Amino acid sequence: MSRTSIPDLLAAYEDGEPLTMLTAYDAPIARQVDRGGVDMILVGDSAGHNHLGYDDTLPVTLEEALSNTAAVDRAVEDAMVIGDLPFLAYGLSVERSIENAGRFLKEAGADAVKLETAPGGETTIELVDRLTELGVPVQGHVGLTPQRMNQIGGGFVQGRGDEQSAAADALVETARALADAGAFSIVLEAVSEDAARRVTDAVDVPTIGIGAGRYVDGQVLVVTDLLGLGGESYKLSKQYADLDKTIRGAVESYVEEVRDGQFPAEANVYDPIE
Ligand code: KIV
Would you say the pTM of this structure is higher than 0.85? Predict the structure, then answer.
């Protein structure tokens, strides 16, 4: 069976079916996320803090992002795999941006790429146009764009139009420009519910929300938040499991059993001495 394609996504969108996306950064988790039935798997640059141990997304290198994407690609059969262009892997020049984006498809097996766009961001909107013309499908990303955290100053909700937040009009215009440039869907991150609804009404491609409320066409969560792996919890997310606890419990049991001689038992031994 082939993976979910853009026409498949657009057909579901036209039918009003909510779309589902989760992040994944390695093969074992990607395999379960895929078997669980999501439409899209984003190999997000949130790997920076959730997988690679950095403080945020900025240090993630192109090679790390490609390596994570290739690992996910090897595990996934059904979902669309989207590689996330890390900080400054795009935007330095059109040529380098296209070359870097192309590597996600040519070398890492991604089906599409995602890139972040600042309000009114002409550079990235032009890139979306060029990439889609060349056959590299692009998912847009507006609202809170963590690669610009040093400018934004924190994880503020966008679309409120106050000092720390883009105006809803700017988000609508940027999303429209991305859709016109060929983006096949647009992630809305940490956006007020009203602004997210306005964007969703304004564009004719699916909007995928994370902390963008209920009036969008689909949802995305960071898989480690959903799984309870990594100890953080956020208002915009929902924790469906507590893997931190499960993993720690398993490790403690192993340590205890080795120390008190329960493991290995006879059943785990080759050619046991009678
Ligand atoms: O990198 C990521 O995980 C993302 C999602 C929050 C959409 O960009």
Answer: yes
